[in-house]
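Final report, section 2: Outcomes. Of the targets proposed, PRC-barrel domain-containing protein is the one most frequently requested by collaborating groups, and we therefore present its record in full.
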Amino acid sequence: MIKAIVFAATLATAGAGVVYAQQSGTTGGSPGTTMGTERGTTGTMGTERGKMMGQREGMTTGSTAQIMSTLPQHVTAVSNWYDQNVYDPQENKIGEIKDMLLDREGKVQAVIVSVGGFLGMGEKDVAVAFDAVSPAQRDNKWWLTMNASKDQLRTAPGFRFDRSKQAWTMAAR
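The predicted structure is given below as tokens.
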């Protein structure tokens, strides 16, 4: 449960920057005006501190978060993907989404699918392009499909999550 909460918070944080970047520069106030910045909140972070915090070059600090009064259209909750089963075209379960990998802009590029195993033993984690997984609604339930078989996933290169690096790496053979 904790991992799911951390995962959701990570996606929300990554997505907030994308949403903010897509919004216009005007917020509240009269038309044609923009919110001013508070004293000491402009400029770029120091190189070392910015690297430590994973900040991209040219980003400013102290930006006020864009509060939304409406939600974007055509979006879905992370919970519709995370820890959800994935099925082949014949509706056989082939795995479960264990993680989602985002690029620097916050867009999902790949999913980690856990395949095989029993009660967490002997399972293999493989990376699959995000657009290879298709979502659908069936019987009021979220349904994820992929045009692949369980055997294809079992023979794909495996990955493991390295806790010290906080990143996915190639699994030892």
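The chain is about 20% helix and 25% strand.
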